[in-house]
Each structure stands twice: as C-alpha cells, then as structure tokens.
Amino acid sequence: MLRHGNAAPTRPERVVVMGAGGFVGNAIAARLERDGATVMRLGRREVDLLTTGAAERLLGLLRAGDVLVAASALAPCRTPQMLRDNMVMAAALVAACAAPLAQIVNISSDAVYADCPEPLTEVSSKAPDSLHGAMHLAREIMFRNTVSAPLAILRPSLLYGAADPHNGYGPNRFLRLVERGDPIVLFGKGEEQRDHVLIDDAAELAARVIYRRSTGALNVATGTVTSFRDVAEMVARYMGRSTAILETPRTQPMPHNGYRPFDIASCRAAFPDFVFTPLAEGLRRTIADRREPAERRGA
Description:
By secondary structure, the chain is of the alpha/beta class. It has a domain at about 5-160 and about 195-225 and about 260-275: NAD(P)-binding Rossmann-like Domain (Rossmann fold, 3-Layer(aba) Sandwich). The protein is built from nine helices and 13 strands. The chain has helices at about 25-35, 55-60, 80-95, 130-145, 170-180, 200-210, 230-240, 265-270, 280-299; strands spanning about 5, 15-20, 40, 65-70, 105, 150-155, 160, 185, 195, 195-200, 215-220, 225, 245-250. The strands form four sheets. A seven-stranded mixed sheet has the order 1-11-6-5-4-2-3, with helices on both faces. A two-stranded parallel sheet has the order 7-10. Helix 1 packs across helix 6 (about 200-210) and helix 5 packs parallel to helix 7 (about 230-240). The radius of gyration is 19 Å and the shape is globular.
C-alpha cells in the first residue's frame, strides 16, 4: 500500500530518470515533461552502469532534492550473465543513492510474485521462479535495505504500447506480425489470461507517485485479465486486416499456470480518480500511434 508524503500533488525540483532511453523510462520522462517538470534524462551514453566508477559518475550528477527514477535494467533477464550484469547495475544505482534525494522510484515487475490462483496484491508472496523475477526482487531488496530516501516500488504487469522495443509475446508482437502481413502465432491455443497495461497508464501512475512523494509498493495492473487468443483477435480486427491466427503445440507448461489476476484495491485507494485504459481502447490508440510515424514518412 502506498503512503503519500505530500497532501496534494507537488512538482519536485527535478526528476532524474536513469534508463530514459528505455520503454518505461522514456514514457515516464515524457509524461513529466508534458507537465513542464524539470527532467534530466540519463541513459547508457551518459552513465553506463556496467563500467567502473558508474556510481560515482551518477552521484556527481545528482543534486539534493532530486527524485531518482530507477528504470535502467537489462530486461527481460533471461540468462545468468544478464542476472549478474543487472546486479552490477543495481549496485551502482544504490550506491549513487547516497545523495540526499527527495524520493526514489524503482521500476520493478509483477514477476517477483509466486504463482497464485487468487488475485495478487502488493503483499502477496514474493517467490519468483524466473531469472527475471529474481533480478527484480533482488533489486527491490537492495533498495529497501540500503537507501534512506523515501522509496516507492512500482510493479507493472504486461506493458504494451507503440514504442515498445522488446517485441514481447502479446499485443506488441501481434501488432508487428499483422503489420508485416504475417500470421499471429499463439503458444498452444493462446488460452493464458494476463493483465495487459497501456504504457501511458504506467507513466501516469509513476507521475502521480512522484507528485505525491509516495512510499511503499504498488502493482501497476488493470484488474482485468484477457486471454492471448482474445488479444490476437482484437489486434487483427482493429488493424482491419484478414489475419490468420495459428495455434502451436506447447513444449513447456503455461507460464503462471495460465492465470495471473490482480486485486487493484490499493491503486484505487491511493488514486481514487485514476481509471485504467480499457484494453480495446489501448490497442486502438497503440495502432494509431504506430501508424502516425509511418504516414509522416510517406508524406
């Protein structure tokens, strides 16, 4: 559950987004900039967290009163080498938090939770069975046990949006396949049910957490699950194309036993006026956002 340090939304002096070149970091930075907030965007070019002296370089860029958004990670984390590198990066981030910061916002993942047939909450058991989940849980523990500044941890479910670079299974990959004229290929029958979150909503919640100087943990999930089969059919329909949707035999068990619901009571309590974008609307918006650059290039 979040606790708000500011009784009313208050713009901080400056927000430093470490990982601003990534999908989530860029969205958060852009959301804050639309409000006229002062944002320092940092990426690998400015501070490579895998290099010697990275913590000192980042510390030298931070000022008293800054809000630091820790959105820099090698994700998804799939190999032991990536896990090792992510721990090096996290150690540099945590060391730089010796600066007198106003707040730290760590971007984590719902992958930290154990599989459960009941809707997940912020206090559900943390027992990841993937390297990606283990990486994010280790980051959370490092921040919680080391930093003294107010700490907020955001745990997004599956994110989608026009600028996604990962081509992850779900809306992002399905859109690319349809754009190329290729069939959508499902794992099994696409029967897994997951919570899909528009990146704009994740950025909005991050901005609200910053403006309220919130502490604690918050799941970034809509509270509604949709099967990948239904997502594929929606993408094909909204793209206005006749697209084959192919089922394939499974070679591994369904992730999360095929069901990953969330109880979003904490989000509603923290931000009663916030409403998540329905999946249908989010997909239409994502399609429009992807088409706009292509239309400009063709103009």
